């Protein structure tokens, strides 16, 4: 097996309303490349959010008493804390400089995934500008998949990834927050090893493993390569519709020993 | 940027004392491939442990009272629990079927990384046979790197990976447990985004991202491709010796909100 991760070059700064399928095609064209059947498109959350105009202007946010109190505790802008609370189900951990929540979509991450780097408003005054996660990243992924399939008459998988911190280890990891046409969780339960013994590692976060590899290719310090094409994987949609999207990767709270 | 993950084919079942550099060269040769300057070799923990004869025969383990009591609590073989305790600094979480520890090397993982799948003893009676993690995975990685450099007169990076469960999400992820010639943690602290604003995501677990991508290529149900060559990354050793190896990825206990 040979997997190739190809960073798509010359993707311009994404604006609200931009058609990402067009930008990907145009970027690949500058490289003499074209999407192929069974490619997986890994795309950074940030440009999905920009295309979907998920900007929030903090100067228009009125922090509640709860947000003001919490902001003091975690040493953050009360308006940003209000935005984080608005995007969250509950606070998981807090301490000065750190606010880890369960985001509304079920992702446990710092600041509910709200980002302030690599974004700018039209008038250049960007200090109060934030970018929220997409409203429904699985739908964003599925929409892009359908658009690409319609244009090229090919099957592709789509993963939206985001850089997320983790317990026990230092350094963020690119993880999947939206998935389409790709089995996010590979389940080997009931399968046996080469000696017929039942496997101990029975579930593999395949979409996260691909999201992580793609994140390495995307880099962090600029926004020049927010799209990576992964060639050689042959993605497939789970037959069971309940297993589609990113949900199979999210551990329910009552099954989680680390909240 | 283009990264290619190449699964090395035709690696035979690894035996204690095997020279892995030779097996990798031979496997690549069957594919008409050869190691190149700046390749990264990602290699599964399991075959490192086998080559280093890290087998443990549970029939020779005498469980302590503590292990017997804990085994009842977590519904596991008391001898296996004793082996896990012997390999651990402390128990992090326990419940029936689950025993998560800080392994002696600092890795937080289930069962101290002790594995019973895909291993077999010479007489075929493998029910009591376990495989422990390498004693010093960074050294194992460095030894392999030096051997490859000496043979081919090239620079390579080496990452030893293992499938590890995580908080909040279902499904294991391939993560680095040993690193040589590769900057495990990419540190962007103090760097700015494309608008000159300080980056929010400042540390990236680069070795983990590569380990995860390679794990996807290795697969899980057989042992045929426990080595993956990653081409296109240009690995480099951190100049600061204290930042070498896997240690920069491990969050110290007193800095960890999730123990």
How do the strands line up in the largest sheet of chain A? 1-12-2-8-9
* Helix and strand run of chain A: EHEHEHHEEEEHEEEEHE
Instruction: Could you tell me the CATH topology label of the largest domain in chain A.
Output: 60s Ribosomal Protein L30, Chain: A
Q: On the 0-100 scale, what is the average pLDDT of chain A?
A: 92
Poorly predicted ranges of chain A (pLDDT <50, ≥5 residues)?
A: none
Number of helices of chain A: 6
Question: What global shape of chain A is seen?
Answer: globular
Structural class based on helices, strands and sheet pairing of chain A: alpha+beta
Strand content of chain A: 15-25%
Largest interface: A-B, 71 and 72 residues
**From the coordinates shown, what is the CATH architecture of the largest domain in chain A?**
2-Layer Sandwich
Distance between the termini of chain A: 38 Å
* Share of residues in helices of chain A: 25-40%
How many β-strand runs of chain A?
A: 12
Main beta-sheet strand count, sense and barrel state of chain A: 5 strands, mixed
At a glance:
Chain A is of the alpha+beta class and 259 residues long. The first copy, chain A, folds into 2 domains: 4-53 and 134-248, CofE-like (60s Ribosomal Protein L30, Chain: A, 2-Layer Sandwich); 55-131, CofE-like domain (CofE-like fold), CATH 3.90.1660.
């Amino acid at each position: 097996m040979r997997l190739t991760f190809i960073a798509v070059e010359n993707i311009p700064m994404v604006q609200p309303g931009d058609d990402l399928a067009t930008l990907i095609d145009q970027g690949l064209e500058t490289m003499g490349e074209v999407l192929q059947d069974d490619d997986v498109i890994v795309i950074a959350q940030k440009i999905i959010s920009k295309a979907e105009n998920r900007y929030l202007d903090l100067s228009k946010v009125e922090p509640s008493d709860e947000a003001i109190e919490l902001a003091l505790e975690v040493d953050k802008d009360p308006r940003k804390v209000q935005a984080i609370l608005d995007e969250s189900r509950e606070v998981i951990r807090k301490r000065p400089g750190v606010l880890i929540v369960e985001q509304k979509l079920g992702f446990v991450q710092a600041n509910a995934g709200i980002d302030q780097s690599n974004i700018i408003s039209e008038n250049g005054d960007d200090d109060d500008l934030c970018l929220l996660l997409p409203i429904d990243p699985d739908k964003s992924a599925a929409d892009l998949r359908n658009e690409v399939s319609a244009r090229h008459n090919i099957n592709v998988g789509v993963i939206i990834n985001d850089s997320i911190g983790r317990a026990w280890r230092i350094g963020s990891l690119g993880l999947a927050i939206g998935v389409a046409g790709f089995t996010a969780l590979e389940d080997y339960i009931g399968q046996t090893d080469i000696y017929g013994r039942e496997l101990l590692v029975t579930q593999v976060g395949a979409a996260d493993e691909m999201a992580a590899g793609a994140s390495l290719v995307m880099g962090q310090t600029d926004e020049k390569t927010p799209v990576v094409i992964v060639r050689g994987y042959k993605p497939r949609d789970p037959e069971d519709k309940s297993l589609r999207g990113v949900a199979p990767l999210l551990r329910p709270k009552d099954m989680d020993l680390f909240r």
